[in-house]
Automatic annotation (TrEMBL):
This is GDPD2 inositolphosphodiesterase. Pfam families: GDPD. Belongs to the glycerophosphoryl diester phosphodiesterase family. GO terms for biological process: lipid metabolic process. InterPro entries: GP_PDE_dom, PLC-like_Pdiesterase_TIM-brl. It comes from the Eukaryota. It is found in: Membrane. Gene3D superfamilies: Phosphatidylinositol (PI) phosphodiesterase. GO terms for molecular function: glycerophosphodiester phosphodiesterase activity. Keywords: Glycoprotein, Hydrolase, Membrane, Transmembrane, Transmembrane helix.
Length: 515
């Protein structure tokens, strides 16, 4: 390489110390004859790749926050340990991305100052460890939580246009250190190679919008109506899940449907409970320690009424919103008990909202009796049957005969040879594309997708035309009067052209200036 122009001693020292762990000035460095070798360049390239790797993981970490409560519940069922693991994820990710980005900034500044890129061996080891940690995280995600790859695909519909602008801006800024390196190196082959790679990357980025699609690229007058809200176990961010308080809080959030889970006690009383065991959402370990591990259906109704179904919510704080509860809400939460299905139906009838539920466990030997008992409670409650949305697939034909007014919701897509028309479907949000949602909408099929907590995801589904979403965050989605962003196609086209042109001019200026 040719001799670099150098920079002030103070700047050189400040840059070399954290990157190379050497307290030396530019003049001393030059006397020692140290230069950036091909070996050093390879480590810089590795640093750049690690930065991109951790940046992609940061994106995934933000995306999976929508579903992270499910992960917390999974860990509790496996280890009986409750912790908000999303905080651990975000802190660890922030440390990794901060470390790699800091080193990259130091390296680029050293290159601009004409200093050698002598990465210290400690940083090399830490970069390798960072790569292994992120690779392990991606591997675990693919094995245990594969559906999140679909979530990432959906997220690109919300973030694609902005990721494109950010990528163009980042690659444009790289023009300065790249031009500095190209003008200083004596290897013609290396110059040509770097220029070709950089030009190919920029051309790909300039043309990327040709492959970017988003349902939110539409005219304002084409926007479908706002999806209705379905309270997932009520309003679990504001009250203990599957309790009457949670139902009333959901009503305050203007939800149209209270979604819950029903089990049947040993003496035939249907009650609200999601988990097969009572340990997560009650104090069963304190009241019945020797029976705590039993299935929820092994308890009779008298036993269940002795359990506290609210204090766990205040102690474990399953959501950050628990900290902001008023003293009155805290007092009410601590008084919650397990409600029966009859109590929930009465509350839903008085509040004029629908109720949708699963009947668990589906593999129970007495499941048909569960269905019959549940239907009996529904018919005796006096609630209008059109307000009952029936999810369980088992013995569905019997339900249609005994309660013909109940609305049937299917947890699958339509089949080509349906005997009866499917009017309502309830699916994970990852399982339906925007095109399928539009087609179902045209065919007057109601589509409910679950569980949608983040505004970005709600915005994408809103633009796609989904009928309703099941959510933990009804208090957040209630306040949204418009998708986060909505761009007419002509406006997006203008932004695309302007960004590309400005980027091209800045790159040309950078190469001319550095020469």
């Amino acid at each position: 390489m040719a001799d670099p122009p150098g920079c002030c001693s103070a700047c050189a020292t400040c840059l070399l110390c954290p990157y190379s762990c050497q307290w030396i000035t530019a003049k001393k460095e030059k006397r020692k004859g140290l230069r950036t070798t091909k070996y050093d360049c390879s480590w810089f390239l590795f640093l750049f790749c690690v930065f991109l790797f951790t940046l992609v993981w940061l994106y995934f970490a933000i995306i999976i926050l929508n579903d992270f409560h499910n992960f917390n519940e999974f860990i509790f069922r496996q280890r009986k340990l409750w912790l908000d693991w999303s905080l651990v994820l975000l802190i660890a990710t922030a440390v990794l991305i901060s470390y790699s980005s800091m080193l990259l900034v130091f390296a680029l500044c050293l290159q601009l100052c004409g200093q050698p890129l002598k990465l210290h061996w400690v940083h090399k080891i830490l970069l390798i460890l960072t790569t292994l940690v992120v690779a392990a995280a991606f591997t675990g995600l693919g094995i245990k939580w594969a559906e999140e790859w679909k979530s990432a695909r959906i997220s690109l519909q919300a973030t694609g246009p902005f990721l494109h602008i950010g990528a163009v801006g980042g690659m444009t800024l790289l023009a300065w250190p790249l031009a500095s390196f190209i003008y200083r190196t004596r290897s013609t082959g290396l110059r040509v190679f770097l220029l070709l790679v950089y030009c190919a990357a920029m051309i790909a980025l300039y043309l990327a919008p040709l492959g970017i699609t988003s349902p939110c690229i539409m005219e304002e007058n084409q926007l479908p109506p706002k999806p209705a809200l379905v309270g997932h176990r009520g309003a679990p961010m504001l009250a203990p899940e599957n309790t009457l308080m949670s139902l009333h809080k959901a009503v305050d959030c203007d939800v149209q449907v209270f979604e819950t889970d029903v089990m049947v006690s040993a003496d035939g009383v249907p009650f609200l409970m999601h988990d097969e065991e009572l340990t997560r959402t009650t104090n069963v370990q304190a009241v019945f320690p020797e029976r705590a591990a039993l299935n929820s259906t092994a308890f009779n109704w008298t036993d269940l009424q002795q359990l506290d179904a609210g204090s766990w919510f205040l102690e474990r704080r399953p959501f950050p919103t628990v900290q902001s509860l008023s003293p009155g809400d805290r007092k009410e939460a601590a008084k919650q008990r397990i409600p029966s299905l009859g109590q929930a139906l009465e509350a839903a009838k008085q509040s004029n909202i629908s109720i949708m539920f699963d009947l668990r466990p589906e593999n129970h030997s007495d499941y048909q009796n569960f269905v019959n008992v549940t239907l009996e409670v529904i018919l005796q409650s006096g609630i209008p049957l059109q307000q009952v949305l029936w999810l369980p697939d088992g013995f569905r034909e019997d339900v249609k005969q005994q309660a013909p007014g109940v609305q049937h919701v299917y947890g699958r897509k339509r089949l080509e040879d349906e005997n009866e028309p499917v009017l309502h479907v309830n699916l994970p949000y990852q399982d339906m594309s925007s095109e399928e949602i539009r087609q179902y909408r045209q065919d007057n099929v109601s589509v409910n997708l679950y569980v949608v907590n983040q505004p970005w995801l709600f915005s994408v589904l809103w633009c796609s035309g989904v009928s309703s979403v099941t959510t933990n965050a009804c208090q957040v989605l209630k306040e949204m009067e418009h998708p986060i962003w909505l761009l007419p196609s002509t406006t997006y086209f203008m932004i695309w052209i302007v960004v590309d042109c400005v980027s091209f001019l800045i790159i040309i200026w950078a190469f001319v200036l550095m020469k």
